[in-house]
Amino acid sequence: MRSNAKKYLKVLTAVIFCALVAAGASGCAGAGNEVKITGSTSVQPLSRELAKGFMENNRSIEITVDSSDSTKAIEAVESGTADIGAISRELENGESEHVGKVYTIAIDGVAVIVNNDVKVNDLSLKQLRDIYTGKITNWKEVGGDDAAITVVSREPGSGTREAFVEKTGVMSDSEDMTADDAVVCTSTYKVVRTVSEKEYSIGYAAFESAGSTVRTIRVNGILPSENTVRDGTYPIQRPFQYVTGKEVSEDAQAYLDYVMSKDAQSRIKERGYVTSE
Description:
There is one protein chain. This protein has helices spanning 2-32, 44-57, 70-79, 125-132, 159-168, 188-197, 226-230, 250-259, 262-270; strands at 34-39, 62-67, 84-87, 102-114, 122-123, 150-154, 171-172, 175-176, 183-185, 201-206, 215-219, 237-244. The protein is α/β, with parallel strands linked by helices. It folds into 2 domains: 12-106 and 244-270, Periplasmic binding protein-like II (D-Maltodextrin-Binding Protein, domain 2), CATH 3.40.190.10; 108-237, Periplasmic binding protein-like II (D-Maltodextrin-Binding Protein, domain 2, 3-Layer(aba) Sandwich). Strands 1, 2, 3, 4, 5, 6, 9, 10, 11 and 12 form a 10-stranded mixed β-sheet that branches. It starts with a helix and ends in a 7-residue tail after the last helix.
């Protein structure tokens, strides 16, 4: 009896040990099956939609999406704290040295949005530059009401801001000349909300994110749309891109391959974005 009891105890101990080892291995596998994306708030909604599509057929891989800005995205993939960085601008001088590969997933127009009190329907690039640098401070100077202009901007490091200041000429000799009294917002959502709430305000945001609470105006006579962004006639546009570090995990590569697939490109179009091809 004692001999059988000892044998039973040994078997039970072995089973428990194997179970613990298996649980540990399973836990490690779960951690390894997470792909982290971080970066531009403008790209975040698209990343979430693409992640959803990917995980429908890849249930063992979890895609997590959070936001910061384009500059921090590049820092994250370089340091290894993220698998994929989402940026809403072209790479700047020296940044290509810190990333492995770049994937253009869509092209985005940066819409100029105004509060519904604003009567102006069209601004030139020069007028936008003068408004954002503080040279023009009243709507009457551009054909609107006699009312002070409230300038709303994104924060330094934002890909949306960098695209806007470059295309409008607010960036001069590598210096961002955005007016010091501009209201600075840290996300696309906050820009749209601020412009909708502040009388006689102006801001800029990804055109598919502008929504109905603000009014999108023409730039150089052109409204942002899929056609005008694709053919280049709308003057303020930028790429939505994914960047990776020098090494890419199999799971991250599987997601990137999906992003460039027909299914993913269809999802991009359905959500109002312009595909790169």
